[in-house]
User: Which sequence fits this backbone?
C-alpha cells in the first residue's frame, strides 16, 4: 500500500491535531496520520475476516479468544520493541 503520495486536505479537530504535532513535531505529522490510517484499514479488514469466519463457523470460543489475545499481546510487544530501538 505504498508508492506515490498525494497531498489531501482533511479536517481534524484542532486539539487533536495539536496534540499529535506536539508529540511528533511538524515533520512527523503526515507519517503519524499515515500510520494511523494504515492501522485503521488493517482493523477494518480484520473485522471483515472475523465476521466472515463467525458467519460460517459460529462465534469464537473463549479458548480461541484467549489464544488470539496471547498472540496479539506478543505481536504488540515485538512491535513496540521495534519502535523503541529506532
Assistant:
Amino acid at each position: 500500500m505504498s508508492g506515490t503520495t498525494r497531498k489531501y486536505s482533511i479536517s481534524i479537530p484542532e486539539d487533536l491535531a495539536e496534540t499529535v504535532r506536539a508529540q511528533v513535531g511538524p515533520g512527523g505529522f503526515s507519517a503519524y496520520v499515515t500510520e494511523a490510517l494504515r492501522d485503521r484499514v488493517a482493523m477494518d479488514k480484520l473485522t471483515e475476516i472475523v465476521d466472515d469466519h463467525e458467519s460460517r463457523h459460529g462465534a469464537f470460543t473463549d479458548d480461541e479468544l484467549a489464544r488470539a489475545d496471547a498472540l496479539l499481546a506478543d505481536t504488540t510487544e515485538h512491535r513496540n520493541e521495534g519502535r523503541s530501538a529506532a
